[in-house]
Write a structure and sequence with these properties.
- GO terms for molecular function: chondroitin hydrolase activity.
- This is Glycosyl hydrolase family 88.
- The chain has helices spanning 11-35, 52-55, 64-76, 82-90, 92-98, 107-112, 115-122, 125-140, 170-179, 182-198, 235-252, 255-272, 294-310, 313-333, 362-376; strands at residues 142-143, 148-149, 160-162, 209-212, 219-221.
- By secondary structure, the protein is mostly helical.
- It has a single domain (5-376), classed as Glycosyltransferase (Alpha/alpha barrel).
- The protein has a 3-stranded antiparallel beta sheet with strand order 3-4-5, with no helix packed on it.
- The longest helix is centred in the first third of the chain and has 25 residues, at 11-35.
Length: 383
């Protein structure tokens, strides 16, 4: 579509990207040697002690460490990144596939960044089969009456869908591209239409969760989710909306999705302008305590880079400059680049209430790495 963001950078921004990428490469090389094929989630006192492969192998974030490894393999050509990534894919994640009834809509996060990445980069046929297997699972979660993909498996949540799903449906677009079967992409498109109609509000903010009657498809409610309260504005949900609708536009060419991504982006930027680029957990949370979530900033910056590559030339600078402002803020105020310590982005919070606050969480690191590599034209497109 538009020009790569790496061709749009000023000399100063290109230099910043090069310096930051070098810091990340040193950090992830050290983590690769310490962590290997274990699956990290949250670092405590500078160490990834918990191995999610043991404690919760199907947890939705377990694709992000393989994703980091595959991005590093692509960026550096170093095969030592490929070995642990494929081990995770062939051992832990194959076990998750076998536990079929536990799979949910997050199969996109889990396998786009592991098996599908492997297929894209190495043409490993077994990885392609894994990707198509879980894409079929995701398509099977589609409710044809309500035209939405069911999020979770718990009884009573048959009609629930969430904005995060916009980052899972690229698995379906990939499956259609891979097989020529239009049904995968059609499910993704119909679900995106439902999210557009029920998640994105008039002011550009987003609901996290939307609930429908699974038998009739009628909208019922939009509960609080991981934000402060119902009707508030969970910042990571806004970030999923930016990136997810931008990707839906890239895959379909439907201008409604681009317009939605831009509206959510404008809302997000107006809010982080008040906090210097680091997002609050919820943009409508009380003034105190100030609880931040740098994950939202990393995801949004990556999504803004996506928009800078999709919009007409006259609009590109806005999204590129906001991406740079946010990435610089994260690097300056929220990162630990010391290779001796695990975890890069420190100021992460999984939710507003009863969550882990201001800790390093693995998927912030993934989106920061992907965004910085995209600035250099060195990232592999995994969405």
């Amino acid at each position: 579509m538009g020009a790569s963001v790496s061709d749009q950078l000023t000399a100063e921004d290109a230099q910043w990207a090069a310096v930051t990428a070098a810091k990340l490469e040193a950090k992830f090389a050290a983590e690769r040697d310490r962590v290997g094929s274990r699956i990290p989630y949250i670092a405590v006192d500078g160490r990834y002690e918990e191995d999610m492969a043991v404690t919760f192998p199907g947890w939705w974030t377990n694709g992000f460490w393989p994703g980091i490894l595959w991005q590093m393999f692509h960026a550096t050509g170093d095969p030592s990144y490929m070995t642990p990534a494929r081990t995770i894919e062939e051992t832990t994640l194959d076990g998750v596939i076998a536990a079929y009834e536990k799979l949910d809509h997050d199969v996109g996060f889990l396998w786009l960044l592991s098996a599908v990445a492997d297929w894209r980069l190495t043409r490993n046929e077994a990885s392609r089969v894994r990707g198509l297997h879980v894409a079929t699972v995701l398509a099977g979660r589609f409710n044809p009456i309500g035209r939405f993909i069911r999020a979770w498996n718990e009884p009573g949540r048959e009609g629930w869908a969430i904005v995060d799903s916009m980052m899972n449906i690229p698995l379906l677009f990939w499956a259609t591209d891979e097989t020529g079967d239009p049904r995968f992409a059609e499910v993704a498109r119909l679900h995106a239409d439902t999210m557009l109609a029920n998640v994105v509000r008039a002011d550009g903010s987003c609901n996290h969760i939307v609930c429908f009657d699974p038998a009739t498809g009628e909208f019922e409610k939009a509960p609080a989710g991981q934000g402060y309260e119902a009707g508030s504005s969970w910042s990571r949900g806004q970030a999923w909306g930016i990136f997810g609708f931008a990707r839906a536009y890239r895959h379909t060419g439907d201008e409604r999705y681009l317009d939605a991504a831009k509206r959510v982006a404008h809302y997000f930027c107006s809010q982080v302008a008040l906090t210097g680029g680091i997002a609050l957990v919820d943009f409508r949370q009380p003034a105190e305590p100030k609880v931040f979530d740098a994950i939202a900033s990393c995801v949004a910056a990556d999504g803004l880079i996506e928009l800078a590559e999709l919009v007409p030339e006259a609009e590109r600078a806005f999204y590129r400059q906001w991406a740079m402002l946010i990435l610089r803020a994260v690097a300056d105020r929220a990162c630990d680049f010391d290779p001796a310590r695990d975890g890069v982005v420190q100021l992460c919070s999984d939710k507003y209430h009863d969550g882990r606050i201001h800790v390093p969480i693995i998927y912030a690191d993934y989106f920061l790495l992907e965004a910085v590599l995209r600035l250099q034209g060195r990232a592999v497109d995994l969405w």
